[in-house]
Specification:
CATH class: Alpha Beta
Strand content: 15-25%
CATH topology: TIM Barrel
Structural class: alpha/beta
Low-confidence stretches: 1-15, 236-248
Number of strands: 8
Strand order of the largest sheet: 1-2-3-4-5-6-7-8
Number of helices: 13
Helix content: 40-55%
Protein backbone atom coordinates (compact mmCIF):
# COMPACT_ATOMS: atom_id res chain seq x y z
CA UNK A 1 0.00 0.00 0.00
CA UNK A 2 1.33 3.45 -0.85
CA UNK A 3 0.16 7.01 -0.47
CA UNK A 4 0.96 9.91 -2.79
CA UNK A 5 3.23 12.65 -1.50
CA UNK A 6 0.46 15.13 -2.33
CA UNK A 7 -1.85 13.51 0.22
CA UNK A 8 -0.77 16.13 2.74
CA UNK A 9 1.00 19.41 2.18
CA UNK A 10 4.29 20.28 3.87
CA UNK A 11 2.86 22.20 6.83
CA UNK A 12 0.16 19.61 7.53
CA UNK A 13 2.73 16.85 7.26
CA UNK A 14 4.98 18.50 9.83
CA UNK A 15 2.06 18.91 12.21
CA UNK A 16 1.12 15.24 11.88
CA UNK A 17 4.68 14.14 12.47
CA UNK A 18 4.91 16.33 15.56
CA UNK A 19 1.62 14.94 16.89
CA UNK A 20 2.70 11.32 16.42
CA UNK A 21 5.96 11.99 18.26
CA UNK A 22 4.33 14.04 21.03
CA UNK A 23 1.84 11.22 21.64
CA UNK A 24 4.59 8.63 21.52
CA UNK A 25 6.89 6.89 23.95
CA UNK A 26 10.56 6.23 24.59
CA UNK A 27 12.79 3.58 26.17
CA UNK A 28 15.02 4.13 29.19
CA UNK A 29 17.35 1.25 29.96
CA UNK A 30 18.07 0.44 33.61
CA UNK A 31 21.67 1.34 32.75
CA UNK A 32 20.44 4.90 32.11
CA UNK A 33 18.19 5.38 35.15
CA UNK A 34 20.43 8.22 36.36
CA UNK A 35 19.46 10.16 33.22
CA UNK A 36 15.68 9.93 33.67
CA UNK A 37 15.44 13.59 34.71
CA UNK A 38 17.35 14.69 31.59
CA UNK A 39 14.96 12.72 29.40
CA UNK A 40 11.93 14.12 31.21
CA UNK A 41 13.14 17.68 30.60
CA UNK A 42 13.13 17.06 26.85
CA UNK A 43 9.83 15.24 26.25
CA UNK A 44 6.19 16.09 27.10
CA UNK A 45 5.20 15.58 30.74
CA UNK A 46 3.74 12.16 31.39
CA UNK A 47 5.37 10.55 28.35
CA UNK A 48 5.46 6.75 28.63
CA UNK A 49 8.99 5.51 29.29
CA UNK A 50 9.44 1.78 28.73
CA UNK A 51 11.93 -0.19 30.79
CA UNK A 52 13.33 -3.04 28.68
CA UNK A 53 14.04 -6.44 30.17
CA UNK A 54 17.76 -7.23 30.23
CA UNK A 55 19.26 -10.70 30.79
CA UNK A 56 20.38 -11.25 34.36
CA UNK A 57 19.12 -7.90 35.62
CA UNK A 58 17.92 -8.04 39.25
CA UNK A 59 14.28 -7.10 39.86
CA UNK A 60 15.49 -4.50 42.36
CA UNK A 61 17.30 -2.67 39.56
CA UNK A 62 14.16 -2.61 37.43
CA UNK A 63 12.19 -1.17 40.34
CA UNK A 64 14.87 1.49 40.85
CA UNK A 65 14.50 2.47 37.19
CA UNK A 66 10.70 2.54 37.46
CA UNK A 67 10.98 4.74 40.56
CA UNK A 68 13.41 7.14 38.84
CA UNK A 69 11.14 7.45 35.82
CA UNK A 70 8.07 8.14 37.96
CA UNK A 71 9.98 10.67 40.09
CA UNK A 72 11.07 12.49 36.93
CA UNK A 73 7.44 12.98 35.88
CA UNK A 74 7.23 10.28 33.23
CA UNK A 75 4.92 7.24 33.10
CA UNK A 76 6.95 4.04 33.63
CA UNK A 77 6.01 0.97 31.57
CA UNK A 78 8.16 -2.06 32.45
CA UNK A 79 8.54 -5.00 30.12
CA UNK A 80 7.30 -8.31 31.50
CA UNK A 81 9.41 -10.96 29.79
CA UNK A 82 7.74 -14.33 30.32
CA UNK A 83 10.73 -16.61 29.79
CA UNK A 84 12.97 -14.48 32.00
CA UNK A 85 10.63 -14.59 34.98
CA UNK A 86 12.14 -16.61 37.83
CA UNK A 87 8.78 -17.75 39.18
CA UNK A 88 5.17 -16.94 39.97
CA UNK A 89 5.75 -15.34 43.35
CA UNK A 90 8.67 -13.14 42.24
CA UNK A 91 6.57 -11.89 39.32
CA UNK A 92 3.58 -11.19 41.58
CA UNK A 93 5.75 -9.35 44.08
CA UNK A 94 7.37 -7.26 41.35
CA UNK A 95 4.01 -6.26 39.88
CA UNK A 96 2.55 -5.47 43.30
CA UNK A 97 5.46 -3.21 44.16
CA UNK A 98 5.55 -1.58 40.72
CA UNK A 99 1.84 -0.79 40.85
CA UNK A 100 1.50 -0.05 44.56
CA UNK A 101 4.68 1.97 45.11
CA UNK A 102 5.28 3.58 41.72
CA UNK A 103 1.88 3.84 40.05
CA UNK A 104 2.59 1.40 37.23
CA UNK A 105 -0.71 0.71 35.46
CA UNK A 106 0.46 -0.80 32.17
CA UNK A 107 3.14 -3.26 31.11
CA UNK A 108 4.50 -4.50 27.80
CA UNK A 109 4.24 -8.28 27.53
CA UNK A 110 7.11 -9.94 25.67
CA UNK A 111 8.26 -13.52 25.45
CA UNK A 112 11.92 -12.80 26.11
CA UNK A 113 14.52 -13.77 23.54
CA UNK A 114 16.18 -16.62 25.43
CA UNK A 115 15.76 -20.19 24.16
CA UNK A 116 14.92 -21.72 27.57
CA UNK A 117 12.58 -20.37 30.21
CA UNK A 118 14.13 -19.41 33.54
CA UNK A 119 10.94 -20.27 35.38
CA UNK A 120 7.39 -21.54 34.81
CA UNK A 121 6.43 -19.32 31.86
CA UNK A 122 7.29 -20.27 28.31
CA UNK A 123 5.18 -17.51 26.73
CA UNK A 124 3.07 -14.46 27.55
CA UNK A 125 -0.19 -16.38 27.23
CA UNK A 126 0.67 -18.32 30.37
CA UNK A 127 1.21 -15.07 32.27
CA UNK A 128 -2.16 -13.77 31.10
CA UNK A 129 -3.96 -17.03 31.88
CA UNK A 130 -2.95 -16.83 35.53
CA UNK A 131 -4.61 -13.44 35.96
CA UNK A 132 -1.65 -12.06 37.92
CA UNK A 133 -1.63 -8.78 35.98
CA UNK A 134 -5.20 -7.78 36.80
CA UNK A 135 -4.83 -9.07 40.35
CA UNK A 136 -1.88 -6.78 41.05
CA UNK A 137 -3.40 -3.57 39.69
CA UNK A 138 -2.30 -3.56 36.05
CA UNK A 139 -5.05 -2.06 33.87
CA UNK A 140 -3.58 -2.16 30.38
CA UNK A 141 -1.18 -4.38 28.44
CA UNK A 142 0.95 -3.78 25.41
CA UNK A 143 1.36 -6.67 22.99
CA UNK A 144 4.28 -6.91 20.60
CA UNK A 145 3.49 -6.60 16.89
CA UNK A 146 5.72 -7.72 14.02
CA UNK A 147 5.33 -5.94 10.66
CA UNK A 148 7.94 -8.30 9.16
CA UNK A 149 6.66 -11.38 10.97
CA UNK A 150 8.28 -13.12 13.92
CA UNK A 151 11.68 -14.75 13.28
CA UNK A 152 10.65 -17.98 15.05
CA UNK A 153 6.81 -18.05 15.07
CA UNK A 154 4.74 -18.78 11.97
CA UNK A 155 2.10 -16.16 11.03
CA UNK A 156 -0.94 -18.41 11.77
CA UNK A 157 0.36 -19.22 15.26
CA UNK A 158 1.17 -15.55 15.87
CA UNK A 159 -2.35 -14.52 14.82
CA UNK A 160 -3.99 -17.19 16.97
CA UNK A 161 -1.95 -16.12 20.01
CA UNK A 162 -2.92 -12.49 19.44
CA UNK A 163 -6.61 -13.43 19.34
CA UNK A 164 -6.29 -15.43 22.56
CA UNK A 165 -4.46 -12.60 24.31
CA UNK A 166 -7.19 -10.14 23.40
CA UNK A 167 -9.87 -12.53 24.64
CA UNK A 168 -8.09 -13.18 27.95
CA UNK A 169 -7.48 -9.47 28.45
CA UNK A 170 -11.14 -8.67 27.83
CA UNK A 171 -12.23 -11.32 30.34
CA UNK A 172 -9.97 -9.73 32.96
CA UNK A 173 -10.93 -6.14 32.18
CA UNK A 174 -7.53 -5.25 30.74
CA UNK A 175 -7.10 -2.75 27.93
CA UNK A 176 -4.97 -3.86 24.97
CA UNK A 177 -2.74 -2.00 22.54
CA UNK A 178 0.09 -3.00 20.21
CA UNK A 179 3.70 -1.83 20.13
CA UNK A 180 5.44 -2.90 16.94
CA UNK A 181 9.00 -4.00 16.37
CA UNK A 182 11.00 -1.40 14.43
CA UNK A 183 11.29 -1.92 10.69
CA UNK A 184 13.30 -0.38 7.86
CA UNK A 185 10.43 -0.56 5.34
CA UNK A 186 7.69 2.04 5.99
CA UNK A 187 5.38 0.41 3.42
CA UNK A 188 5.41 -2.83 5.43
CA UNK A 189 4.50 -0.94 8.59
CA UNK A 190 1.59 0.79 6.87
CA UNK A 191 0.35 -2.54 5.51
CA UNK A 192 0.54 -4.06 8.99
CA UNK A 193 -1.40 -1.17 10.53
CA UNK A 194 -4.06 -1.32 7.82
CA UNK A 195 -4.46 -5.09 8.26
CA UNK A 196 -4.83 -4.72 12.03
CA UNK A 197 -7.40 -1.97 11.53
CA UNK A 198 -9.47 -4.46 9.53
CA UNK A 199 -9.06 -7.47 11.85
CA UNK A 200 -9.04 -5.69 15.24
CA UNK A 201 -10.35 -2.14 14.76
CA UNK A 202 -10.55 -1.46 18.51
CA UNK A 203 -6.82 -2.07 19.07
CA UNK A 204 -4.57 0.99 19.01
CA UNK A 205 -1.01 0.85 17.69
CA UNK A 206 2.19 2.53 18.75
CA UNK A 207 4.55 2.07 15.83
CA UNK A 208 8.10 1.17 16.81
CA UNK A 209 10.77 3.30 15.16
CA UNK A 210 14.53 2.96 15.45
CA UNK A 211 15.73 6.11 17.17
CA UNK A 212 18.79 8.04 16.03
CA UNK A 213 21.96 6.00 16.45
CA UNK A 214 25.15 5.20 14.60
CA UNK A 215 25.00 2.81 11.62
CA UNK A 216 27.02 0.01 13.23
CA UNK A 217 24.82 -0.07 16.33
CA UNK A 218 21.66 0.08 14.23
CA UNK A 219 22.79 -2.87 12.14
CA UNK A 220 23.71 -4.84 15.27
CA UNK A 221 20.33 -4.24 16.92
CA UNK A 222 18.48 -5.05 13.69
CA UNK A 223 20.22 -8.42 13.41
CA UNK A 224 19.58 -9.17 17.08
CA UNK A 225 15.89 -8.27 16.85
CA UNK A 226 15.20 -10.35 13.75
CA UNK A 227 14.50 -7.39 11.46
CA UNK A 228 15.74 -9.37 8.51
CA UNK A 229 13.39 -8.73 5.60
CA UNK A 230 13.79 -4.97 5.29
CA UNK A 231 17.47 -5.18 6.21
CA UNK A 232 18.00 -7.67 3.38
CA UNK A 233 16.12 -5.35 1.03
CA UNK A 234 18.51 -2.52 1.90
CA UNK A 235 21.48 -4.78 1.20
CA UNK A 236 19.99 -5.83 -2.14
CA UNK A 237 19.80 -2.17 -3.06
CA UNK A 238 23.51 -1.93 -2.43
CA UNK A 239 23.10 0.16 0.71
CA UNK A 240 26.36 0.21 2.62
CA UNK A 241 26.49 0.41 6.39
CA UNK A 242 27.71 4.01 6.19
CA UNK A 243 24.48 4.95 4.39
CA UNK A 244 22.15 2.95 6.60
CA UNK A 245 21.00 5.87 8.75
CA UNK A 246 20.18 7.90 5.64
CA UNK A 247 17.81 5.16 4.52
CA UNK A 248 16.30 4.65 7.94
CA UNK A 249 16.04 8.18 9.31
CA UNK A 250 13.19 8.11 11.86
CA UNK A 251 11.66 11.28 10.48
CA UNK A 252 11.02 9.81 7.04
CA UNK A 253 9.35 6.74 8.52
CA UNK A 254 7.07 8.90 10.65
CA UNK A 255 6.15 10.96 7.58
CA UNK A 256 4.87 7.73 5.99
CA UNK A 257 2.81 7.06 9.13
CA UNK A 258 1.42 10.59 9.01
CA UNK A 259 0.25 9.98 5.46
CA UNK A 260 -1.41 6.74 6.50
CA UNK A 261 -3.07 8.33 9.54
CA UNK A 262 -4.49 11.17 7.50
CA UNK A 263 -5.98 8.69 5.04
CA UNK A 264 -8.09 7.09 7.78
CA UNK A 265 -10.79 8.53 10.02
CA UNK A 266 -10.16 7.57 12.70
CA UNK A 267 -6.65 6.12 12.52
CA UNK A 268 -5.59 3.21 14.69
CA UNK A 269 -2.06 4.66 14.99
CA UNK A 270 -1.86 6.64 18.23
CA UNK A 271 1.83 7.53 18.22
CA UNK A 272 5.32 6.20 17.73
CA UNK A 273 7.53 4.26 20.12
CA UNK A 274 11.20 5.25 19.90
CA UNK A 275 13.72 2.48 20.48
CA UNK A 276 16.65 4.36 21.99
CA UNK A 277 19.28 1.56 21.96
CA UNK A 278 20.89 2.86 25.13
CA UNK A 279 20.80 6.48 23.98
CA UNK A 280 17.69 7.77 25.76
CA UNK A 281 18.86 11.38 26.07
CA UNK A 282 19.89 11.55 22.42
CA UNK A 283 16.53 10.10 21.39
CA UNK A 284 14.61 12.47 23.67
CA UNK A 285 16.49 15.42 22.19
CA UNK A 286 15.56 14.23 18.69
CA UNK A 287 11.91 13.99 19.77
CA UNK A 288 11.96 17.50 21.22
CA UNK A 289 13.41 18.96 18.02
CA UNK A 290 10.77 17.30 15.85
CA UNK A 291 7.91 18.29 18.13
CA UNK A 292 9.08 21.90 18.20
CA UNK A 293 9.87 21.95 14.48
Amino acid sequence: MSFPASAIDGSARAGSVAELIAAGSIEISPRELHRAAEVAALVPAGTCAYVPSLPGLPVSRVLETVAAIRHAGLDPVPHVAARRSAGREPLREFLQRAAGEHGVHRVLLVGGDQPRASGPYSDTLQVLEEGVLADTGIREIGIAGYPEGHPRIAPPALEEAFTRKRRLAAEQGLGVYVVTQFCFAPARVVEYCAALARSAPSVSIYVGVAGPTDPAALLRYAQRCGVSVSLRALRNLGTGIAQLVTHTDPHEQIVALARYSRSRAPSNVIGVHLYSFGGAVRTARWMRERIAG
